[in-house]
Amino acid sequence: MTEYVVLFPADDEAQWEAASEAEHQATFDTDAEFVQLLKASGGAVVGGAGLTHSSRARTIRRGSAPTDTVVTEGPFAETVEQLSGFYIVTCDDHDALTEAARVLTRAHPVVEIRPVDEF
């Protein structure tokens, strides 16, 4: 089976933190519906998680030489969108995965599906 990463690159962190428990549950229910649709098409969730607020991130960038690094707290300042979560899934049918992932847009404004390159 082919492995994919399903990414949520545009969720609004402030909106999530301000949301009610019922609004959080609606997102969890939508995610559960995606998992069921994926299973019905013969796919499976291998793993995944929601990510903490981007302000808690550390960014490591290569300096002028490959052995030089710079560590900063928080995301890139230029970054408008932040990755808020992901699933790692397996599925033989990319179109079926895409169809199942459509429901996720009810809770996540953008859903990106990327095949995992096997080395």
TrEMBL record:
InterPro entries attached to this UniProt entry: Dimeric_a/b-barrel, YCII
Pfam families: YCII
Domain YCII-related, residue spans: 6-119
Gene3D superfamilies, per the entry: Dimeric alpha+beta barrel
Coiled-coil intervals, chain numbering: none
Stated family: Belongs to the YciI family.
Protein name as catalogued: YCII-related domain-containing protein
